[in-house]
Batch of 2 targets.
Target 1
Amino acid sequence: MDAWLRPTSLADALAALAAGPRVILAGGTDLYPSHVARPLPGPILDITALPDLRRIEAHPGYWRIPCLATWSDVIGADLPALFDGLRAAARQVGGVQVQNAGTVIGNLCNASPAADGIPNLLALDATVELASRAGTRHLGVADFVQGNRRTARRPDELAVALRIPRPAGPALGVFEKLGARRYLVISITMVAVVAEFDPAGRIRRARVAVGACGPRALRLPGLEAALAGRRPEPDLVTPDLAPLAPIDDVRASAGYRLQATEELLRRALGALGTSRARAA
Amino acid sequence: MSVIGFVLNGRPVVATAPPAQRLATVLRDAFGLTGTKIGCDAGDCGACTVLLDGAPVCACLTSLGQVEGRAIATVEGLAAERLAPLQRAFLRHGAAQCGICTPGMLMAAVALLARTPHPDEAAIADALGGVLCRCTGYRAIIAAVADAAATLPAEPEAGAAVGARVARRDGVEKVTGRERFGADALPAEPFLTVRAVRSPHPHARFVIGDLAPLFAAHPALVRVLTAADVPGSLRYGIYATGKDQPVLAEGRVRHRGEPVCALVGPAEALAAIAEAEVPITWDPLPPVRFDDATCSEALHAHAPGNILCRGRVRAGDPDAAPPPGAVHAAIAIETSFVEHAYVEPEAGYARRVGERIEIIACTQTPYMDRDEIAAILGIRPEQVRIVPTAVGGGFGGKLDLSVQPLIAVAAWLTGRPVRMVYSRPESMASTTKRHPARIRAEAVAGADGRLFSVRFHGDFNTGAYASWGPTVANRVPVHATGPYAVPHVLCTSAAIHTTDPPAGAFRGFGVPQAAIAHEALMDALADRLGLDALEFRLRNALRPGCRTPTGQVLGADAALALCLEALRPRWRAWRDEAAAFNAANRGPERLGPERRGVGIGCMWYGIGNTSLSNPSTMAIGLARTGRVVLFSGAVDIGQGSNTVLAQIAADALGAPLAAIDLVTGDTDRTRDAGKTSASRQTFVSGSAARLAALALRAEILRRANAGAAARIGFLPGAVQVSEGTESSLLALETLPADADGMVLRAEGHFDPPTTPLDEDGQGIPYASFAFAAQIAEVAVDTALGTVTVRRIAAAHEVGRAINPTLVEGQIHGGIAQGLGLALMEEYVPGRTDNLHDYLIPTIGDVPPIEVTLIEEPDPLGPFGAKGVGEPALVATAPAILNAIAAATGARVTRVPATPERVLAAIRAARDGGRA
């Protein structure tokens, strides 16, 4: 088996994966740092030469973020306010150097508990398009991410794209991240919210997700249900944080994470209110 | 291996290498483009930033395979024939200090300027936020990018170098990527690599098993070094009495990251060896923690109770009853390990030349390295040649040996050149840190607002080995009152061994930790007396003629009062503005969580070693060519001594700065200038350089039979001595030259006058003290506990600013490190061995800084100059912590003041009322 492949067609890529498991390399912004001062483990499938998998595209019922779309591509794409949260996350993933190389799907597949992309993808109700020689399947992000650095991707599959469904009405995304410095900071906790509004400006439906507060990012269904039919404001509800299971680590204690998460949720709801006019 | 073609700095090239190899490695190793630096190998520092089709990326995260057919631009491509405008701007603004981050900064900025020719500060910060700098505090970098059309500063006339903002002498190398740092210098001959195998345990016994299977599996492996292979003294250490640190551990390790054996062989062969293949059996022992070290089993026989040493200063009657109406304050504070986090990991190589060894590596102290390596190899110091490379940041961390012992032993035993480059995790796990401190202090002031007494005790976690622990233990009690006149004093310290990494030298030697305590006390006393915090400090400031707690009487240069008076207008204005903001934000309709506050911190700092001789000898020569050469053993670690010493020598000699060349560091060519540490090179080596230049001047004038006021012109092959209308030409070509080509040579020697401290700490510990006061304004998010420093003003008494741009650079950089100490830096052994878990300030964290330089000439310093390397760091954390208290009423007593700790303090203050 070749130690390194860089196929120029999806069919070749899937054939290579069908032949045996490979480490998949795209932007390299997670893979290389996990092997400091050592060579990458092989065999490697470098997917960056695959054609037509970079451009973020609008389709009738959904947007598609292909697997080579970088954070900079998200920042530069013509996307509606629904994506404001994802865009805010994109500006805070590493520095410009990492944003230029790192991919949104790579962030998802790396499945770090502190991945800034994942709460946003949960709030966007994104699904993952997984391709293999056996066919294509679609999994919701909540089903795809199974735990700390564990996903449902089979070794013969490639996560080819994300699909973000178009909401029925005006919608807005927000992202609140807490870190201990201005740039290049791993989140202590983070909150992503996407809300769809009815014509009267009330929340028709909201999806709320929290990251860095457990082995994987989670939605808060209790809070989501409580928000339905209400106008967004900071002190709308006392969030039920029971689903979260943060840990103590070098960045903060579990207790502080919960306190800060509650505050970030209030701010996210406040931002929904103040930025509601952006929703389209 | 693949053959991969791409365009490199405009030229098509082909690389033959594994396609998954990091582009940074390919650029450096295959193309020799060492301007692209590897600081972390993990995308955390941005030093390896290059442009890929015009967009900045980290070359350490980019595979060679991915650049096929694309265009790469590196720092070497910026200046084809002459410097690019941005490079000139970096030199004018002092935006490059050590220079290790400069290529990354330049490339990130070039990409920004291509898109946005006139960026504002926010855009600059966003574009450069991915590159870490540990020296400059970023403000000069922001200024340079905003002023990318700048020209180079003019070269001063003869006699006008001191006080001029000249560009660094070594600046062009730093902005073009040509500077050679530890990992950039390679032996000419084929070389071996050494890789240390390090302890994963903080405390353990170990046995190294049979190595035969390892050699059998890896035939290219040349040697495995163990403690038994060290030819001379196994143990080394800073103090003659403290040689306690083994080159390789002998059956027992005392900290995580301690080397137990070392593999020597070709780099590829070593890379193929898995750590698990090295047969080591570990028997973990209970760690010795700072909490209970004094009642744990002693780690060293010479340190019962794990107490390495103590320090003490006693003055007046510390037990005297306070006067009626006196107020009292007490504080207990705790600080964390702080990592130097220079962007350059330790690196270098050694080669054996007959019966001599040459070490080419980054260091702050070539002569101490020379003597240590001689002892380790069992040879005479004259058999060791240390050739320092450029140093990509030191801050005290490169005062201890790192790669040197292993490369020296390996090269000595194999007879082949041997290279070692620390990885970032290895550097962080194994090298020294700032001492964590636990301090209790109390102070009493009379109703007249004058300090009456101070009591202070600090325990300092000095880790597994002594390193610079005694220096910290001695320096802290001398400084622990703060820069104030106090009649009754008892200040004590202890350096305590634990199974943590060795704590050593770090900018300030324990004084930054102590200052957090004394400045909290000053605020508390002022508050209790109903006095303004600045005015209270001014009333108690050490002034000319004051007696310090060690009994030293200060001279006319003790100018803390001038610093405070300089800050007073801003102090009042900023406090009014913060109060207005808080009042506006407190109304029922605008109940935001942000509160602002302004805090003040003062400091004093003794220049040079504490009560120990610390001489410097500088040599200067006149070459046959008519050029002047300053032979300086002082290592420029980015602070600018190469430039400052040349400025001093130029004016003392009466030569234009441009006539002076530099030979630095090499122990075969220079004299011992002492270490680059304790803010001493300008003061001590500057004095020596001045004396050397004066002696050379006297010799030239003597030969020309001219008077002291004569002018000397430096011409090709001759000097012209003019006095009034008389002029004589001294031809140099016919004079005999020494091995360096010098026809005249002179030396200068200076050792600052100090006296030993007695058992009560009485004596003259330093020949000179620097003084400073700083204020900081912060915004505290009282719902999350996050702190943003909004602005800082710093007033420093520097004696004479030899080069104001460099002095401001030291102040900015010290402030950035002080901000990190205050708010985010906390090294946890085994948990934060990288630059994403260990946080240092980024370009977005350092606020605008206003610097006021106060010049009260020091009677001993060259042209009146003092040292300025450490003071700004000392005053910063106290000012920030006092500002947090002013904003919130909450006193954070454990640093760093992380969001969690700040929030907890706010809630405790709210629940308990104002204590």
Target 2
Amino acid sequence: MSDTPIARGPVAVSPATVRDGWEVDARVATGTLTLSDESPLAKVHVRAPFDGASRAALGVGFGRTARADLGTGEVLVVGSGPGEWLVLGAPNTAGALRAAIEERLAGTGEFTTVLDLTHGRGLLRLTGREAATVLGGVCAIDFGDAVTPDGTALRSSLAAVVTDIVRDDQGGTPSYLLHVERSSGQYLADALLDPGRPSGLEVTGFRGLA
Amino acid sequence: MMLLPCPWCGPRNSTEFRYVGEAGPRPDPATVTPEQWRRYLYVHANPCGPVRETWYHRAGCRRYLSVERDTATNDVRSAVDTASAAAASSAPGDAR
């Protein structure tokens, strides 16, 4: 892979390195509370009838997430809204992922739209035991385990930015994917770093879905 | 803080919603007079008491909701998805 980036995420990085053609942060945090820019992940948006065959084909309903293999490697399917899904995959697989989803939904006979949003959206990941506390500082949702356990997806106002919030724990540690319009990515990162500073929030490099 | 019980997302702060206005029948654009259309757009009953309103959950499910709210107390008696409610009421023989 060339060292020349072909794409950048919404959050400014320093120092930078190139991975899968994306300019990403080269830092590796050692703390227990981290924020990373996961924008290189492929992001495909699906719209279909809320309760039809497409829902069964995608394997998850509104408000929940599921890991699946749609033929492009492991992806995270998120029921982000009534009749809306967000599918996250490995970097540089958006085209193949979109084609795979279209093929899967073609047999349903329902009117569906599948759109590659990879370069139009920002995706952050906040990981750590204190992650819920940090989110609670900028959002009115109860992020306790009883209300938003692992595998929960919801959309709300996070620091006044409309954000898809996806709980996707990593190795038993609470972790939240935050999906926003690309133009809000830098602001949201700054808005999280501020309340996260007392808890020791550190910026780290791209991790990926695993 | 005012909470609205979204049927999809649960109770949410009203700042997540956009107030659309009092709910009412939309005149037929093919037959409506300019006076009727102006009254439909700009003249509202604005009662002190129960009223049926339309809200849009812009920071959540992005659905239009029909909300029955008491403007004097802010008590919300019901909140349903506008499209789902319309589909249910138009379905013949639907017992819901």
